[in-house]
């Protein structure tokens, strides 16, 4: 029975079990063909040396040709079947890992370099588990058993000697390889992830590291990890060399022992040669178990990291919409495929509590909030009050520790991903801009959008004039993470993408961040006007422009401490009134300075 991380990983492979078993049978057939080819060729050469009649060796000649051809055909077919099954499994694993990483709360271990290492290097361990451990290991074990059975038909004593050699090569050496490799190998995968994260920090944080004089210390830390990784890999290479050398010694001793056992008079001369060479081939094939054991030990650390994420991820099939009753397709239209906008829907947070760490103060503390359909609501409050957490919970990006979130009467955690994203979505803090064109970045929200749709969303976000000024227009490249854009342009692009998605509940986290006061007022007013009658939730630090909001919530320490419209709150003593007075004074000073 397979236990540990392998069981979790292989559970994903269960739908492809037939393909994997087929690949294993083809691998065993390939090795058997190779062993039979070796034995037949040796018999043919020794027999032919005695110049027998041609009729006596014709069958052997044909068999050698047939086995040589079948070995190549079987090897090609086995590789094709094995890689087909493995790539299907790897695709399913990567999908679930991406789901788990996307749903994780941000923490120190979720840096992009480590996430990339989990998606690429660690998932390759799943491929190694199937292609380099299970399939060849099963094939080698099968060939070893059949080789001993074939030798037993010639001479039982010789078969026992061969079985002993195969036991050492196929059991003793693999166990030794595992024990010698495991302790070192378990440290390799986490170290590779840390090194990838450090490298990402060095590349993308180079300017900040230089500004604070921290480049040297960061380089020293990364260099130290690289040296540790190189030392571990050298140790693994030395261990592999030692075990392989022991395998060659075992193969030689087994052949010698088989030859001595067969030469005691019970076996004729031709079959002694066949048994000797066949034993050598069988032991070499059995040594494949050493390579499988070593690869298993090397991969186990990465498999453990993969299994941890797979345990967090829900079955992606659960997020797929059910087919329509007529079989025509999905019962839920993906974004951009429905005609017209979805109707506004109500949302409710019922006693929602969120903590980012056990024992830490709650980011949201038993929060109750009913959002009627079609309302424009602003959420304000001091930094750390829980505003972005509120949006994350409302959109399903963050599951509450306690309480429940319902949208359109359904619990958000029970909704399929496609339905959830169609109901609630929008602009989030630090929205990512891809290294692609303006058009491609916008079409991410709605792949079927027309040029008119793009123009409408860009005009609402205040980006259309800039696009028209560019020589390449919609095909203008924005660079990695939007590096070819200013901060304001990058924010407008992200806002236009959110508007183009057009969910039933549009959430906007700091939609005017990076814009000057006049531009911020104009953009916010345009967005709200374009979404008249729509449900809109805006998180902002800036109170100007909130006069048209139906309701304003003031959060502090994860609780709603004030609520009302703008006119009510500026007359009521509290945080909102104080901030309104300070922001007005600051903006008046700004206008005086630039006039």
- The class by helix and strand makeup works out as alpha/beta
Shape: elongated
Averaged pLDDT: 80
DSSP strand tally: 10
Helix count equals 18
Strand content: 5-15%
Helix and strand element order? HHHHHHHHHEEEHEEHEHHHHEHEEEHH
Strand order of the largest sheet: 6-7-8-3-9-10
Report the span from N to C terminus: 78 Å
Rg value: 34 Å
Sheet with most strands: 6 strands, mixed
The residue ranges in which pLDDT falls below 50 over 5 or more consecutive positions are 105-111, 315-339
**Helicity level:** 55-70%
Describe the structure.
This protein has 595 residues and is α/β, with parallel strands linked by helices. The chain has 18 helices and 10 strands. The protein has helices spanning 5-12, 17-48, 54-103, 112-154, 156-204, 206-211, 215-262, 269-286, 288-312, 387-395, 417-423, 438-443, 451-460, 464-469, 487-501, 517-530, 566-571, 575-594; strands spanning 347-354, 364-371, 376-380, 402-407, 410-411, 424-427, 505-509, 535-539, 551-556, 559-564. The strands form 2 sheets. It has a 6-stranded mixed sheet with strand order 6-7-8-3-9-10. The chain is elongated and about 110 Å long.
